[in-house]
Structure formats: C-alpha cells, structure tokens
Amino acid sequence: MKHLSLPRFRPASSTARRQLLFALAGMAGLVLAGCGGTVSTAGGATTPTAPAPPPVANYQFLTGNWEFQVTPSAGTTAPFTTMAGFINEQGQNPGNFDESTAVFQVQPTSNCYDGAVAIPLAGNVQGDTAKYSSFSDNGQYLGLVLTRDTPGTHLTGTYSDTGGCVKGVSGTIAGVKYTSLTGTYKGPITGSTPNLAATLSLTQGGQGTGSGVTEVSGSGVFTGFACFTKGNVDYTQSYVLGSAVVITIPTNDPTGAQVVITGSFDQGATTITVSSIQVTSGSCSGSYGTTSLTVQ
C-alpha cells in the first residue's frame, strides 16, 4: 500500500466539521426513513414488518481509519489517486443490513476536486458488500461498491464518479484499515547532535472528526534537548488520516515551544516513520532529523 503524501491533507475548520456532521446526519436520516418497522395497507392500517435477522456472530465492523488506492478504467484518468478517511458502521444489525457513513479526503489529479476536500458518504453494509454514495461535491457524485474480507480490514471493488467536470469516470479501488495508533512509541532521533530521543504515549480516538481525520491524544518525553523535557499532545492539532500522522506537542519550554512530528505508520501501527521533527520557537527551534519510533 502506497503511503499518502501528507502535505495535501489538513483537518477542516470547526465550522466545516459541523457542516459535514449535519450532512451525514441528514444522509443517515434518509436511509433510516426507508427502513421503517411498519407497512401501510390500502385501508391506512399498518402491520409490522418481518423481524430483522439475528446479528452475525463474531462480526468485525468496518469502523476505523482507512486508506484507498484508485485505478481508473483503461483510457481514462481518475479524478483522484488516493483516498483516506474514517468509516463508521452503525452497528444496528451487524452483518445483515447495517447503515454506515464515511468521510474521505482525496489527492486530486484535476481541478474537479479541490485539494484536501472532504467527501461525506452514506450507505450500508450487507453481508460482504458495502455500498456508499456521496452528496454533490461541485456537481459530482461518488459511488462505491465494495467487497469486504472476513476480518473487516480490506475492501476491494469499484468506484464511479459522475456529474460535474469528471464527465463520468470509473475504475477499481482497494483499501486497508489501519490499526489504531495507540501505544508507547520510542526511538532515537537520527542525525541529531547531541544524541536526542523521543518517547510518545499515544491514544487514537474511536471516531472521526467529520472531516475524515481521527484525533490523537497523549504525551511526549524528550531526552537530550536543552530547552524542554516533556509535553502533552494537542489533540486538536494531532491526527491520523490513512497512513499519515501529525503529532503536535506543546512542551514545558518557557517560550511555549512546540514539537511538531509528521510522518506515516504501518498498517499494524507498530512503527511510526518520522519524516520531520520541527521545534517551533525558543533557543531550540529548528528541524531535527528523522527517526523510526517503534511500539514498546
């Protein structure tokens, strides 16, 4: 699975998040409105529908942080190359007909999708099949028909994008769910002088924010820095999006210096590959090499 290029993704503003959440709520309401528990007769009376089948035993929900790779049909160009974000499976009837919502951000290949756009979708998961449809985004509509594996960690299928300037494109899509970035990650900072090291204790949130990202909280301990030794993660500025991760830690430096760590992590969330460590202010400000932080 190719890692996302992190700089194209940023959390939406709080206003945008609220708008997306309202949109998702409305979409879910439309789905639920068509799944009522009664049937009207010609005389106006109602009779109960058949009871829902029992939940599938040991069912694994799709809920979590996902990343997808997009392959267009022959002779066409996909409007985006990768897609990442959060899927929320409602859990009302697991394995049978379960309502589901999602919000993805995309890496666009044309002007049809703006950079870092968040696309809300709604649909359902029935058996091994998951189907999603989006609201209009600049007149474009994204549809997904996906097949899940039994553990609920892989989705494969097709996408179709119609309307707007995409002029109707389709192709195949494959995605993986990333294990929650939760644990203690530790390692030296490569190329630093003097020898520096970082230990991050992280907890990934259980739900997305409404803009596709999932917040991360926790704390950090730093050795070898002259200006600070520790700090708490700012969860409003720390998140995962597919394989991409950003961790922002205000430290105990009197100048208010923050450590901003960016990089990616593997599907099993065992290693964070850090591509950048930046200290924002104070006498320790600057860029500090790279590192791999492994779960302890």
- What structural class is derived from the secondary structure elements? mainly beta
Biggest β-sheet description = 8 strands, antiparallel, barrel
> Quaternary arrangement of the chains shown?
single chain
Q: What's the SSE pattern?
A: HEEEEEEEEEEEEEEEEEEEE
The percent range for strand residues is: over 45%
Regions with pLDDT < 50 over 5+ consecutive residues? Answer: 5-10, 12-37
Q: What best-fitting shape do the alpha-carbon axes yield?
A: globular
The tally of helices reads 1
Total count of strands: 20
Level of helix content? under 10%
Gyration radius, rounded: 22 Å
Q: State the separation between the terminal residues, measured CA to CA.
A: 24 Å
Average pLDDT reading? 84
Any idea of the CATH class of the largest domain?
Mainly Beta
CATH homologous superfamily designation of the largest domain? Quinohemoprotein amine dehydrogenase alpha subunit, domain 2
CATH architecture heading of the largest domain: Beta Barrel
CATH topology of the largest domain: Lipocalin
